[in-house]
């Protein structure tokens, strides 16, 4: 395994240690991105409401990894495969929203989402021929709008 991924794994272990949380860290590759999945008894605390704590954990891990490595490395932090489940949910949400837009011929605005969640929705909508999506608004209220294709 690449040495930089060992550094990232150690960053995660250091953060968890400071939080007094024990976890097993599994790694897997998805295309060009490595995913660090944390398996722990404290998953609810690490995930937080709608993944807010998990997003913060990933942000902190990226900052510390950048500081130690001197370069930016693309990686994802997940807890008990929460993000995978969330992505499946978001793809289904995008399909249902597209169906509704087709029926009503009116735009539909989804709830605010993190950037990676919006990307999942945009990717799902992108494979459809008759609807389009765009992100509107400012963080933390940035959301996806789905509308009929002109």
From TrEMBL:
Q: Which residues form the R3H domain?
A: 84-150
Citing just one GO molecular function, the answer is: RNA binding
CDD domains according to UniProt: KH-II_Jag, R3H_jag
Q: State the SMART domains in the record.
A: R3H
Q: Which InterPro entries match?
A: Jag_KH, KH_dom-like_a/b, KhpB, R3H_dom, R3H_dom_sf, R3H_KhpB
Classify the source by domain of life.
Bacteria
Entry protein name: R3H domain-containing protein
The species is Candidatus Doudnabacteria bacterium RIFCSPHIGHO2_01_FULL_46_14
Species lineage, top-down? Answer: Bacteria, Candidatus Doudnaibacteriota
């Amino acid at each position: 395994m690449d040495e930089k991924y060992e550094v990232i794994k150690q960053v995660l272990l250091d953060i968890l240690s400071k939080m007094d949380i024990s976890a097993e860290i599994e790694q897997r590759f998805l295309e060009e991105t490595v995913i660090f999945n944390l398996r722990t008894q404290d998953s609810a605390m690490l995930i937080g409401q709608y993944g807010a704590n998990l997003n913060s954990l990933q942000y902190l891990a990226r900052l510390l990894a950048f500081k130690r490595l001197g370069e930016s490395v693309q990686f994802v932090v997940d807890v008990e495969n929460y993000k995978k489940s969330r992505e499946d949910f978001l793809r289904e949400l995008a399909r249902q929203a597209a169906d509704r837009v087709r029926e009503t011929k009116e735009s539909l605005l989804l709830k605010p989402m993190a950037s990676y969640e919006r990307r999942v929705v945009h990717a799902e909508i992108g494979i459809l021929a008759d609807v389009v999506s765009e992100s509107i608004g400012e963080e933390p209220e940035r959301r996806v709008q789905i509308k009929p294709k002109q």
